[in-house]
Model the fold of this input.
Amino acid sequence: MITHFFTVFCVIPTMRLIFQAYLMIFMLGNLMASQSRSSGGKNVTNITIINLNNEKMQITWAARQLFPNENVSFFYTFDEGKNKVLKPCTTYLLDQDYNSGCLFKTEGPTLAISIRNSNGSEELFSKNLKADFYIKPSPPENVTFFWEEDTVTVSCNKPKRNAWCLTLELQYKSKFDKEWQSRTSKCCSIGEQGFDPRKCYSFRVRLRRRVPSCNEVEYSSDWAAETFWMSGTLLDSCDDDITPQSKTVIVLSCLLAVFLMMVILLILLCKWQRVQVSILPAIPDPKYPFADLFNYHNGNLQEWLDKNDHVVLQAKLEYEEPESITEAESQQEDGKNSDKQGPLEKIFTFPGAAENNDSKAPEIACLIPSSNTTAPFAGFHILMNDDMYVTL
Done:
């Protein structure tokens, strides 16, 4: 009993502490091994080191700032120990025709790089590093979505090496959100709930390296292809989340609007003639009743009256109610005044003359000297002499 108690409360905790101590020593050793030994006084922060999925190394530097007016050369090796053989770069990255980077295959965990002048005789910068601590993972492969009501579980293929160094990041947003919502979990599965089945959501995932236990720099993979989901259904885009019912409503609304516009147009066409008369009443054109006056007599009223004494002119206006004009003609011969007044006189009486008193009679009646010529004008018969004009 005492032995069992001693094993549980003393031996096991001690072994756990020893294991944690070894792990910390291993991590510190990797960090120290990754520190640089540089020469030439160049700024290390201007050099970027990326191990692309532990398959290819990409080393870039700020050529114009670090090495102005000089086209440098690059050498590297994965050999360990004192007898290192540097290899020249075969694939350079250019910046304005100057070497600014190099691509080469990853061949081991330890890397030594050297930047030299153009002919390789003088070393300008050097560094030893752990290539495993600069890994940028590839995008997740075979991403799957499993929906259960308002909960989705996203998973991807597990990498062959060091999966424990990776975390899976999920980002999503609906078409009404401006910013992405982010969730992270250990590789290679993550779940999230609370999705509205009536909304369309955009999803994207990527892998991230843990810092500082696995990487010196927090590198993340590129985003996997963005996908669009609504209530467990995969869509081409969130613009396609219109349901058939809403499409039917839109079509019926458009048809109803067209029908109403046609009805309004028919009503306007039926009422247009009346509206046009109310807004723009017709104005009679004098060229038709007095065509002969202007065409054959050049506006000479006296000549026109002489030639057309047998014609009675009538002016009819379209869309206007006919007006009745009563013309009363009275002719009186006064034997007593015949010697004083000369020829026969004719009296014209206008409508309304009978209603006026006797004192206004001279204003309504006009005395026209007798003449052998009778001329019609606008419904009146006028007796005129050959050498006089009449003003009505």
